[in-house]
Write a structure and sequence with these properties.
7 strands, single chain, seven-stranded antiparallel beta sheet
């Protein structure tokens, strides 16, 4: 039922006169297809598509090693995406003093990974490419980077 509702929302967004609204569902479809085809051991547990000020896709995955999440936001401008990305980095730094922020070169226009000082378990990757912000949370660094790369490769160049 949730999948049907997600496809209905995608259908509605495709017929919007806003170019961004038309672009986001194509990207969201490509992301969902990529994970279903290439990460088959990870089952999509929940997929939500939302859209008002931004177009947003949330996917929650589950496998034998745990749960993972991917959040994709398509903003109306690069400036808005950049501002939100910067604000979230500041908020994350002040909210989680026990995690370390590291630069993540090669992941969009700006990217970073948050890790625990003595563990590679449960990192968060955040990156921005153009007007698209992406957050990935996974059981380990390898899975988080793999999921982030899959999304990054699907975001069109500007």
């Amino acid at each position: 039922m949730k999948k049907l509702a997600s496809y209905f929302l995608l259908f509605v967004f495709c017929f919007s006169s806003d170019g961004r609204a038309q672009e986001a569902p194509k990207l969201f479809d490509a992301i969902e297809r990529e994970f279903r085809q290439k990460e088959s051991r990870w089952k999509i547990e929940r997929l939500d598509v939302k859209g008002e000020a931004i177009q947003k896709l949330d996917i929650v995955f589950r496998s034998g090693v745990g749960q993972a999440a991917v959040e994709v936001e398509v903003w109306d401008s690069v400036k808005n995406a950049r501002d939100v990305f910067a604000g979230r980095a500041v908020a994350s730094a002040s909210a989680s003093k026990r995690r370390i922020k590291r630069a993540l070169p090669g992941f969009g226009d700006e990217g970073h990974i948050w890790v625990h000082p003595h563990s590679t378990a449960w990192p968060s990757i955040n990156f921005r490419k153009g007007s698209v912000n992406v957050s990935v949370f996974a059981p380990n660094v390898a899975t988080a980077k793999s999921f982030a790369r899959r999304v990054l490769e699907l975001i069109p160049e500007r």
